[in-house]
Amino acid sequence: MSIPNLAHQLLIGEALKYAAHRSPERTAFAFENESLTYRGLMERADHLARWLRDHEIGKDEKIGCLFKNGLSFVEVYFGVSLSEGVLVPVNFRLVPNEIEYILNHSDVKILFIEEELLSQIEPIIAELTKIELVVIVGTAQKHFHKNMINYDSIYNAAVSISEIKGQKDDDAHVIIYTSGTTGRPKGAVLTHKNLYINGMNKCYHGQNKRGTKLLLIPPLFHVAALSLLVSNCMMEGTIVIHRDFQPEKILQTIEKEEINSMFLVPAMWNMLLQVPNLQQYRLDSINSCSTGGAICPLELKKKIMDTFENAGLHEAFGQTEMSPSTTYLSGEESIHANKAESVGKPSLNVRVRVVDDEMNDVPVGEVGEIIYQGPTMMKEYYKNPEATAEAFKGGWFHSEDLVRMDEEGYIYVVDRKKDMIISGGENIYPKELEEVLYTHPSILEAAVVGIPDPKWGETVKAYIVLKKGAQLSAEEVISFSQTKIASYKKPRVIEFLEALPRNATGKVLKTVLRADVLINNRKEG
Questions:
Q1: How far does the chain reach from its first CA to its final CA, in angstroms?
Q2: pLDDT digits (tens, 9 = 90+) for 93-117
Q3: Per residue in 184-240, pLDDT tens?
Q4: What are the chain's domains?
Q5: CA dist 10 to 39, 53, 94, 169, 325, Å?
Q6: 3-state per-residue secondary structure call for 91-138
Q7: What SS3 class is residue 341?
Q8: Which of 146, 156, 173 is nearest to 378 (CA)?
């Protein structure tokens, strides 16, 4: 294997080549009873990249993947990164019509899918007219697309020996679709450089050492988890992958595998710490606990540090369009520097301003929108020039997060401009659900807000106004929603009203709904 040349371009494939050259026999990724060394991963990713090129995947052509966590996800991610293609990871929790939109909008040409998830595309396969080939991970024999092959056959096929010479680090690398506040998700185009620099930032701000063993649980279709694949290569570490969140299994794995580091969203941390026999497990190998995806309460931070006595605590804040981390806070800053409510200071290489609607910097301590510049900033929203132009007004990325900054440069999140709900680390946009509810023949009006939830941080509540003479139960509203939208986005709490509160211009007053002060305006449902 030739020594990688990292001097010219910051390519994700070069990060893997670096680790494979430095630590070829070290386990890079492990899942259940399987594992890949860096050399083995490099060989399989390189083979897959050549196979993609042989199947006419050229520059900027899209490869979709509908996977749960596992080694196949890792292989496909790095294989695509070594080709000139662009990976489109799809949230497996979405319902078929949501998946259809993403695959068609992103122009996916080849789709990799797990056998377990075939039922997600079978109802929509006739609508996926741009897909030329479906690659199934598993032993499925039932093929309902004219061009379906099994994943293992790729590695039995002969491939070309041609090399890619023209890749640039500002080429598109992945497209991550974010839930849309206007009812349609937007595809954030992230480049090789975006994810590479974010990986370097993780290494800089974290306390993981070379060879760290990390436990990965959140789904890899999220950029926060996906970015860990890159930083793992940079640290020549080992990632042990879990397919889903099982608190007892996490503790067992920490003890058995002597895990050093772990990232969980606050809701996961909270559930993990509720395991009754937690103290029976040996957890002293953990030296770094990380959280993000939602604001982590101080009491939860204290419990994490009390439980994992040898570990430092790190909190990250950001968003998909910034690849994703923009600020970092350590446990020492949080607790000992009295910055518990903060999300920390700006990340290395990320420039931050807090501005008003005219992009004037607001005074220290006052609330404004946090905006960003830097090499982790996305390239664009795919095929959406209007949204791209709006997001990049004045040459800065506009987050739509309202924050304040103190005199020491620590940032505090105040609110979200578009009422986003964060439930268990998942982003949920009320308007998307409201549009679904409006399609019900008995519903006249609907408004969706997030309400506090001890388990998930926030949960979804829908206020419903029925058409005159219509009858509908809360259970029927929830059941209807679940057929139209991913289950995690459905409302968990329903309240029926005679009318929604509105201001003089007719805008629904969600501040009133959140305050739950509609004492005299309730209707039995």
A1: 68
A2: 899 999 999 999 999 999 999 999 9
A3: 889 999 999 999 999 999 999 987 889 999 999 999 999 999 999 999 999 999 999
A4: 12-27+34-190 (3.40.50.12780), 245-416 (3.40.50.12780), 421-515 (3.30.300.30)
A5: 20, 21, 33, 5, 18
A6: CCCCCHHHHHHHHHHCCEEEEEEEHHHHHHCHHHHHHCCCCCEEEEEC
A7: coil
A8: 173
